[in-house]
Amino acid sequence: MSLKYVTGSFQLMKSINRSTILNIIREEGPISRAEIAKRTSLTPPTVSNLVKELITTEFVIETNQGESKGGRKPTYLEINGNRFFVIGIDVGHFHMKFVVTNLFGEVVDRITLPLDPKPDAEQILHTMEEGIHTVIQQGQATAGDYLGIGVGMHGIVDVERGISLYAPSFQTHDIAIRERLEDTFQMMVKVENDAKTMTLGEFWFGNGMEDGNVVGVNIGYGIGAGIINDGTLFQGENFIAGEIGHMTIDLTGPQCSCGNYGCLQAMAAGPAIARLAIKELKSGKTSLLTKMTDGVLDQVTGELVHEAARQGDSFSIDLLTQTGRYIGIGLTNLIHTLNPKRIIIGGGVAKAGDHILEPIRQTIQQRGLTEEARNTTIVPSLLQEDASAIGACGLILNEFFTSKRV
Ligand SMILES: [Zn+2]
Protein backbone atom coordinates (compact mmCIF):
# COMPACT_ATOMS: atom_id res chain seq x y z
CA MET A 1 0.00 0.00 0.00
CA SER A 2 1.35 3.40 -0.92
CA LEU A 3 0.75 6.14 1.61
CA LYS A 4 1.51 9.70 0.75
CA TYR A 5 1.75 12.41 3.36
CA VAL A 6 0.13 15.69 2.41
CA THR A 7 3.38 17.58 3.05
CA GLY A 8 2.48 20.43 0.73
CA SER A 9 -0.78 21.18 2.51
CA PHE A 10 0.83 21.04 5.92
CA GLN A 11 3.69 23.34 4.93
CA LEU A 12 1.12 25.74 3.55
CA MET A 13 -0.81 25.86 6.83
CA LYS A 14 2.33 26.63 8.78
CA SER A 15 1.70 30.23 7.81
CA ILE A 16 -0.15 31.75 10.72
CA ASN A 17 -2.08 34.12 8.46
CA ARG A 18 -3.40 31.28 6.33
CA SER A 19 -4.44 29.17 9.28
CA THR A 20 -6.08 32.18 10.91
CA ILE A 21 -8.11 32.77 7.75
CA LEU A 22 -8.92 29.07 7.61
CA ASN A 23 -10.18 29.17 11.18
CA ILE A 24 -12.37 32.22 10.58
CA ILE A 25 -13.90 30.42 7.60
CA ARG A 26 -14.44 27.32 9.78
CA GLU A 27 -16.06 29.25 12.61
CA GLU A 28 -18.03 31.81 10.64
CA GLY A 29 -18.39 30.54 7.08
CA PRO A 30 -19.97 31.05 4.66
CA ILE A 31 -18.10 34.36 4.80
CA SER A 32 -16.92 36.83 2.15
CA ARG A 33 -13.34 37.90 1.49
CA ALA A 34 -14.26 41.45 2.49
CA GLU A 35 -15.59 40.27 5.84
CA ILE A 36 -12.41 38.26 6.50
CA ALA A 37 -10.31 41.37 5.81
CA LYS A 38 -12.50 43.29 8.25
CA ARG A 39 -12.05 40.63 10.96
CA THR A 40 -8.25 40.61 10.61
CA SER A 41 -5.73 43.36 10.10
CA LEU A 42 -4.85 41.88 6.70
CA THR A 43 -5.35 43.95 3.55
CA PRO A 44 -7.96 42.80 1.02
CA PRO A 45 -5.27 41.88 -1.59
CA THR A 46 -3.44 39.76 1.03
CA VAL A 47 -6.69 38.03 1.97
CA SER A 48 -7.42 37.38 -1.72
CA ASN A 49 -3.98 35.85 -2.29
CA LEU A 50 -4.17 33.61 0.77
CA VAL A 51 -7.72 32.53 -0.05
CA LYS A 52 -6.59 31.69 -3.58
CA GLU A 53 -3.97 29.34 -2.11
CA LEU A 54 -6.55 27.78 0.22
CA ILE A 55 -8.83 27.15 -2.76
CA THR A 56 -5.96 25.70 -4.84
CA THR A 57 -5.09 23.25 -2.04
CA GLU A 58 -8.82 22.40 -1.78
CA PHE A 59 -9.22 23.31 1.89
CA VAL A 60 -11.74 26.01 0.97
CA ILE A 61 -14.47 26.22 -1.65
CA GLU A 62 -16.54 29.09 -3.01
CA THR A 63 -20.29 29.13 -2.50
CA ASN A 64 -23.17 31.48 -3.25
CA GLN A 65 -25.09 30.53 -0.15
CA GLY A 66 -24.37 33.62 1.91
CA GLU A 67 -26.87 36.39 2.57
CA SER A 68 -27.26 38.91 -0.21
CA LYS A 69 -27.75 42.56 0.67
CA GLY A 70 -29.17 43.35 -2.74
CA GLY A 71 -27.31 43.82 -6.01
CA ARG A 72 -24.87 41.20 -7.26
CA LYS A 73 -24.66 38.21 -4.95
CA PRO A 74 -21.17 38.13 -3.45
CA THR A 75 -19.14 34.94 -3.45
CA TYR A 76 -18.74 33.35 -0.06
CA LEU A 77 -16.17 30.93 1.23
CA GLU A 78 -16.59 27.78 3.26
CA ILE A 79 -14.48 24.86 4.43
CA ASN A 80 -14.26 21.96 2.01
CA GLY A 81 -15.16 19.76 4.94
CA ASN A 82 -15.14 16.34 3.26
CA ARG A 83 -11.99 16.79 1.19
CA PHE A 84 -9.56 15.79 3.97
CA PHE A 85 -9.80 13.42 6.92
CA VAL A 86 -8.10 12.74 10.24
CA ILE A 87 -7.68 9.49 12.16
CA GLY A 88 -8.19 9.60 15.94
CA ILE A 89 -7.33 6.79 18.36
CA ASP A 90 -8.62 6.40 21.91
CA VAL A 91 -6.53 3.80 23.74
CA GLY A 92 -8.86 2.34 26.36
CA HIS A 93 -8.02 -0.22 28.99
CA PHE A 94 -9.66 -3.13 27.18
CA HIS A 95 -10.27 -1.73 23.68
CA MET A 96 -8.72 0.62 21.20
CA LYS A 97 -11.15 2.84 19.32
CA PHE A 98 -10.37 4.31 15.90
CA VAL A 99 -12.47 7.06 14.32
CA VAL A 100 -12.10 8.93 11.05
CA THR A 101 -13.47 12.47 11.06
CA ASN A 102 -13.82 15.10 8.38
CA LEU A 103 -12.65 18.68 8.92
CA PHE A 104 -15.83 19.44 10.91
CA GLY A 105 -15.03 16.71 13.44
CA GLU A 106 -17.89 14.56 12.16
CA VAL A 107 -17.22 10.84 12.45
CA VAL A 108 -17.37 9.22 9.00
CA ASP A 109 -15.92 5.82 9.90
CA ARG A 110 -14.98 3.86 13.00
CA ILE A 111 -13.73 0.52 14.29
CA THR A 112 -12.90 -0.87 17.72
CA LEU A 113 -10.25 -3.52 18.33
CA PRO A 114 -9.85 -5.57 21.53
CA LEU A 115 -6.72 -5.15 23.62
CA ASP A 116 -5.14 -7.87 25.72
CA PRO A 117 -5.20 -7.25 29.46
CA LYS A 118 -1.85 -5.69 30.41
CA PRO A 119 -0.53 -5.44 26.83
CA ASP A 120 3.17 -4.76 26.31
CA ALA A 121 4.50 -1.87 24.23
CA GLU A 122 4.76 -3.91 21.02
CA GLN A 123 1.18 -5.20 21.33
CA ILE A 124 -0.10 -1.65 21.83
CA LEU A 125 1.80 -0.34 18.78
CA HIS A 126 0.80 -3.33 16.65
CA THR A 127 -2.91 -2.86 17.48
CA MET A 128 -2.60 0.81 16.53
CA GLU A 129 -1.07 -0.09 13.16
CA GLU A 130 -3.69 -2.77 12.51
CA GLY A 131 -6.55 -0.37 13.22
CA ILE A 132 -5.11 2.45 11.10
CA HIS A 133 -4.52 0.10 8.16
CA THR A 134 -8.09 -1.16 8.49
CA VAL A 135 -9.80 2.25 8.52
CA ILE A 136 -7.68 3.44 5.58
CA GLN A 137 -8.44 0.28 3.59
CA GLN A 138 -12.18 0.29 4.27
CA GLY A 139 -12.63 4.03 3.71
CA GLN A 140 -13.45 5.84 0.47
CA ALA A 141 -10.54 8.26 0.82
CA THR A 142 -7.06 7.59 -0.50
CA ALA A 143 -4.07 7.72 1.83
CA GLY A 144 -3.15 11.20 0.60
CA ASP A 145 -6.48 12.55 1.85
CA TYR A 146 -5.53 12.00 5.51
CA LEU A 147 -3.96 14.94 7.30
CA GLY A 148 -2.62 12.88 10.18
CA ILE A 149 -3.17 10.60 13.16
CA GLY A 150 -3.97 11.72 16.73
CA VAL A 151 -3.62 9.38 19.71
CA GLY A 152 -5.20 9.70 23.18
CA MET A 153 -3.35 7.55 25.74
CA HIS A 154 -3.89 7.36 29.49
CA GLY A 155 -1.11 8.33 31.87
CA ILE A 156 1.77 10.73 31.33
CA VAL A 157 2.55 11.66 27.74
CA ASP A 158 5.49 13.68 26.42
CA VAL A 159 3.51 15.60 23.82
CA GLU A 160 6.57 17.22 22.30
CA ARG A 161 8.21 13.91 21.44
CA GLY A 162 5.01 11.85 21.13
CA ILE A 163 6.10 9.34 23.78
CA SER A 164 3.86 7.59 26.32
CA LEU A 165 6.16 8.07 29.33
CA TYR A 166 4.09 6.03 31.78
CA ALA A 167 0.75 4.25 31.39
CA PRO A 168 -0.09 3.04 34.93
CA SER A 169 -2.79 0.51 34.10
CA PHE A 170 -0.63 -1.18 31.42
CA GLN A 171 2.52 -0.68 33.51
CA THR A 172 4.36 0.36 30.34
CA HIS A 173 7.08 3.00 30.02
CA ASP A 174 8.53 5.12 27.22
CA ILE A 175 6.56 3.92 24.18
CA ALA A 176 7.68 6.01 21.20
CA ILE A 177 4.24 6.09 19.56
CA ARG A 178 4.82 9.05 17.25
CA GLU A 179 8.09 7.77 15.83
CA ARG A 180 6.64 4.34 15.11
CA LEU A 181 3.41 5.55 13.47
CA GLU A 182 5.19 8.26 11.45
CA ASP A 183 7.59 5.61 10.15
CA THR A 184 4.79 3.23 9.22
CA PHE A 185 2.28 5.67 7.75
CA GLN A 186 4.33 8.71 6.68
CA MET A 187 1.76 11.07 8.19
CA MET A 188 1.80 13.69 10.92
CA VAL A 189 1.25 12.01 14.31
CA LYS A 190 0.36 13.68 17.62
CA VAL A 191 0.06 11.94 20.99
CA GLU A 192 -1.65 13.31 24.09
CA ASN A 193 -3.12 12.15 27.41
CA ASP A 194 -6.67 10.79 26.93
CA ALA A 195 -8.35 13.13 29.44
CA LYS A 196 -6.75 16.01 27.56
CA THR A 197 -7.96 14.72 24.19
CA MET A 198 -11.44 14.29 25.70
CA THR A 199 -11.35 17.93 26.79
CA LEU A 200 -10.03 19.05 23.42
CA GLY A 201 -12.85 17.15 21.69
CA GLU A 202 -15.43 18.91 23.84
CA PHE A 203 -13.69 22.26 23.38
CA TRP A 204 -13.69 21.96 19.61
CA PHE A 205 -16.91 20.14 18.86
CA GLY A 206 -18.86 19.46 22.07
CA ASN A 207 -20.02 21.09 25.28
CA GLY A 208 -17.14 23.56 25.72
CA MET A 209 -17.26 25.37 22.44
CA GLU A 210 -17.84 28.92 23.57
CA ASP A 211 -15.63 28.97 26.65
CA GLY A 212 -11.93 29.81 26.83
CA ASN A 213 -11.38 28.39 30.36
CA VAL A 214 -12.67 24.86 30.51
CA VAL A 215 -11.74 21.78 32.49
CA GLY A 216 -12.73 18.35 31.22
CA VAL A 217 -12.76 15.51 33.74
CA ASN A 218 -12.62 11.95 32.46
CA ILE A 219 -14.03 9.50 35.04
CA GLY A 220 -13.81 5.90 33.98
CA TYR A 221 -11.27 3.26 34.84
CA GLY A 222 -9.15 6.11 36.23
CA ILE A 223 -9.72 9.83 36.69
CA GLY A 224 -7.87 12.54 34.78
CA ALA A 225 -8.46 16.12 33.70
CA GLY A 226 -7.65 18.34 30.76
CA ILE A 227 -7.21 22.02 31.53
CA ILE A 228 -7.86 24.51 28.76
CA ASN A 229 -6.64 27.94 29.72
CA ASP A 230 -7.43 30.76 27.29
CA GLY A 231 -8.07 28.26 24.53
CA THR A 232 -4.82 26.28 25.01
CA LEU A 233 -4.25 22.92 26.73
CA PHE A 234 -2.17 23.42 29.86
CA GLN A 235 0.65 20.87 30.20
CA GLY A 236 2.66 21.96 33.24
CA GLU A 237 6.42 21.60 33.46
CA ASN A 238 6.57 17.81 32.95
CA PHE A 239 3.18 17.03 31.34
CA ILE A 240 1.70 16.03 34.72
CA ALA A 241 -0.90 18.84 34.93
CA GLY A 242 -4.42 17.43 35.21
CA GLU A 243 -3.61 14.21 37.10
CA ILE A 244 -6.40 14.92 39.55
CA GLY A 245 -7.15 11.23 40.00
CA HIS A 246 -4.23 11.19 42.43
CA MET A 247 -5.43 14.14 44.49
CA THR A 248 -5.78 12.91 48.09
CA ILE A 249 -9.40 13.01 49.26
CA ASP A 250 -9.21 10.84 52.40
CA LEU A 251 -5.96 10.15 54.27
CA THR A 252 -7.44 6.93 55.61
CA GLY A 253 -8.93 5.86 52.28
CA PRO A 254 -8.12 2.75 50.24
CA GLN A 255 -4.76 2.30 48.55
CA CYS A 256 -4.48 3.58 44.99
CA SER A 257 -2.63 1.98 42.04
CA CYS A 258 -0.02 4.73 42.52
CA GLY A 259 0.79 3.47 46.03
CA ASN A 260 -0.72 6.38 47.97
CA TYR A 261 -3.88 6.12 50.07
CA GLY A 262 -7.25 7.81 49.52
CA CYS A 263 -6.62 9.22 46.03
CA LEU A 264 -9.79 10.47 44.28
CA GLN A 265 -9.36 7.68 41.73
CA ALA A 266 -9.23 5.04 44.46
CA MET A 267 -12.48 6.43 45.89
CA ALA A 268 -14.59 7.26 42.84
CA ALA A 269 -13.43 5.69 39.54
CA GLY A 270 -15.31 2.73 38.02
CA PRO A 271 -13.31 -0.03 39.78
CA ALA A 272 -13.64 1.80 43.12
CA ILE A 273 -17.45 1.84 42.77
CA ALA A 274 -17.45 -1.89 42.05
CA ARG A 275 -15.04 -2.66 44.90
CA LEU A 276 -17.10 -0.75 47.46
CA ALA A 277 -20.34 -2.33 46.25
CA ILE A 278 -18.89 -5.84 46.56
CA LYS A 279 -17.50 -5.11 50.04
CA GLU A 280 -20.83 -3.82 51.34
CA LEU A 281 -22.90 -6.58 49.73
CA LYS A 282 -20.62 -9.20 51.25
CA SER A 283 -21.19 -7.61 54.63
CA GLY A 284 -24.91 -8.30 54.24
CA LYS A 285 -26.48 -5.27 52.54
CA THR A 286 -29.40 -6.08 50.27
CA SER A 287 -29.53 -4.90 46.69
CA LEU A 288 -30.86 -5.70 43.25
CA LEU A 289 -27.22 -6.36 42.37
CA THR A 290 -27.37 -9.74 44.15
CA LYS A 291 -30.13 -10.86 41.79
CA MET A 292 -28.46 -9.26 38.74
CA THR A 293 -25.29 -11.29 39.33
CA ASP A 294 -27.08 -14.48 40.46
CA GLY A 295 -25.31 -14.05 43.76
CA VAL A 296 -21.81 -14.06 42.18
CA LEU A 297 -20.97 -10.71 43.74
CA ASP A 298 -17.47 -10.52 42.27
CA GLN A 299 -19.16 -9.90 38.91
CA VAL A 300 -20.44 -6.50 40.08
CA THR A 301 -19.01 -3.69 37.93
CA GLY A 302 -19.42 0.08 38.01
CA GLU A 303 -21.70 -0.24 34.98
CA LEU A 304 -23.92 -2.75 36.74
CA VAL A 305 -24.26 -0.38 39.70
CA HIS A 306 -25.50 2.32 37.29
CA GLU A 307 -27.94 -0.13 35.76
CA ALA A 308 -29.30 -1.10 39.19
CA ALA A 309 -29.59 2.60 40.12
CA ARG A 310 -31.56 3.22 36.92
CA GLN A 311 -33.94 0.46 38.02
CA GLY A 312 -34.46 2.24 41.35
CA ASP A 313 -32.17 0.13 43.58
CA SER A 314 -31.65 2.32 46.66
CA PHE A 315 -28.35 0.65 47.62
CA SER A 316 -26.88 1.56 44.20
CA ILE A 317 -28.40 5.05 44.23
CA ASP A 318 -26.79 5.71 47.65
CA LEU A 319 -23.46 4.35 46.45
CA LEU A 320 -23.45 6.65 43.41
CA THR A 321 -24.48 9.60 45.61
CA GLN A 322 -21.47 8.90 47.83
CA THR A 323 -19.24 8.62 44.74
CA GLY A 324 -20.63 11.94 43.47
CA ARG A 325 -19.74 13.57 46.81
CA TYR A 326 -16.13 12.43 46.56
CA ILE A 327 -15.91 13.71 43.00
CA GLY A 328 -17.56 16.97 44.13
CA ILE A 329 -14.84 17.42 46.78
CA GLY A 330 -12.16 16.84 44.14
CA LEU A 331 -13.82 19.30 41.76
CA THR A 332 -14.20 21.93 44.50
CA ASN A 333 -10.41 21.72 45.00
CA LEU A 334 -10.02 22.06 41.25
CA ILE A 335 -12.34 25.09 41.12
CA HIS A 336 -10.38 26.81 43.88
CA THR A 337 -7.11 26.11 42.07
CA LEU A 338 -8.07 26.90 38.47
CA ASN A 339 -11.38 28.81 38.56
CA PRO A 340 -12.73 27.44 35.26
CA LYS A 341 -15.91 28.77 33.68
CA ARG A 342 -17.15 25.27 33.04
CA ILE A 343 -16.34 21.67 34.00
CA ILE A 344 -17.28 18.94 31.54
CA ILE A 345 -17.67 15.44 32.95
CA GLY A 346 -16.97 12.53 30.60
CA GLY A 347 -15.97 8.87 30.74
CA GLY A 348 -17.89 5.74 31.71
CA VAL A 349 -18.86 6.86 35.23
CA ALA A 350 -20.40 10.02 33.76
CA LYS A 351 -22.98 7.80 32.04
CA ALA A 352 -24.70 7.52 35.44
CA GLY A 353 -26.03 11.03 34.64
CA ASP A 354 -27.89 12.81 37.42
CA HIS A 355 -27.21 9.98 39.89
CA ILE A 356 -23.63 11.29 39.88
CA LEU A 357 -24.01 14.88 38.63
CA GLU A 358 -26.54 16.01 41.25
CA PRO A 359 -24.39 15.06 44.30
CA ILE A 360 -21.39 16.62 42.52
CA ARG A 361 -23.30 19.91 42.08
CA GLN A 362 -24.62 19.78 45.66
CA THR A 363 -21.14 19.22 47.11
CA ILE A 364 -19.73 22.14 45.14
CA GLN A 365 -22.70 24.27 46.30
CA GLN A 366 -21.88 23.39 49.92
CA ARG A 367 -18.13 23.88 49.70
CA GLY A 368 -17.40 26.59 47.11
CA LEU A 369 -15.66 29.65 48.48
CA THR A 370 -17.72 32.29 46.69
CA GLU A 371 -21.04 32.37 44.91
CA GLU A 372 -19.22 32.23 41.57
CA ALA A 373 -17.25 29.17 42.68
CA ARG A 374 -20.43 27.48 43.95
CA ASN A 375 -22.18 28.16 40.65
CA THR A 376 -19.46 26.84 38.35
CA THR A 377 -21.25 25.14 35.48
CA ILE A 378 -21.01 21.34 35.58
CA VAL A 379 -22.15 19.62 32.40
CA PRO A 380 -21.90 16.10 30.98
CA SER A 381 -19.80 15.46 27.89
CA LEU A 382 -21.74 16.03 24.67
CA LEU A 383 -19.59 13.68 22.58
CA GLN A 384 -19.75 11.01 25.31
CA GLU A 385 -17.74 7.89 24.48
CA ASP A 386 -16.36 9.43 21.29
CA ALA A 387 -15.00 12.55 23.00
CA SER A 388 -11.45 11.29 23.45
CA ALA A 389 -11.13 9.85 19.92
CA ILE A 390 -12.62 12.97 18.30
CA GLY A 391 -10.34 15.09 20.49
CA ALA A 392 -7.39 13.04 19.23
CA CYS A 393 -8.42 14.16 15.72
CA GLY A 394 -8.48 17.70 17.17
CA LEU A 395 -4.74 17.37 17.90
CA ILE A 396 -4.15 17.26 14.14
CA LEU A 397 -6.82 19.83 13.22
CA ASN A 398 -5.18 22.14 15.75
CA GLU A 399 -2.13 22.23 13.46
CA PHE A 400 -4.19 23.53 10.56
CA PHE A 401 -6.73 25.83 12.18
CA THR A 402 -5.55 28.37 14.69
CA SER A 403 -7.69 30.87 16.46
CA LYS A 404 -4.84 33.30 16.99
CA ARG A 405 -5.98 36.53 15.40
CA VAL A 406 -3.43 38.53 13.40
ZN1 LIG B 1 -3.18 7.55 43.31
Architecture overview:
By secondary structure, the protein is an alpha/beta fold. It has three domains: 7-79, Arc Repressor Mutant, subunit A; 85-204 and 387-400, 2-Layer Sandwich (Nucleotidyltransferase, domain 5), CATH 3.30.420; 210-381, ATPase, nucleotide binding domain (Nucleotidyltransferase, domain 5, 2-Layer Sandwich), CATH 3.30.420.40. It has 15 helices and 16 strands. It has helices at 7-13, 16-28, 33-39, 44-56, 121-138, 177-185, 194-205, 264-268, 270-282, 288-292, 302-310, 314-338, 354-367, 371-374, 387-400; strands spanning 31-32, 60-63, 76-79, 85-91, 95-101, 107-114, 146-153, 156-158, 163-167, 172-175, 188-193, 214-219, 223-229, 232-233, 342-346, 377-380. It has a five-stranded mixed beta sheet. The chain has a five-stranded mixed beta sheet with strand order 14-13-12-15-16, sandwiched between helices. A three-stranded antiparallel beta sheet has the order 1-3-2. Strand 12 (214-219) and strand 13 (223-229) form a beta hairpin. Helix 2 packs across helix 4. The longest helix has 25 residues, at 314-338. The chain starts with 6 loop residues before the first helix and ends in a 6-residue tail after the last helix. The model is unreliable at 1-8 (pLDDT under 50). The protein binds zinc ion (ZN). Zinc ion binds at residues 246, 256, 258, 260, 263, 265.
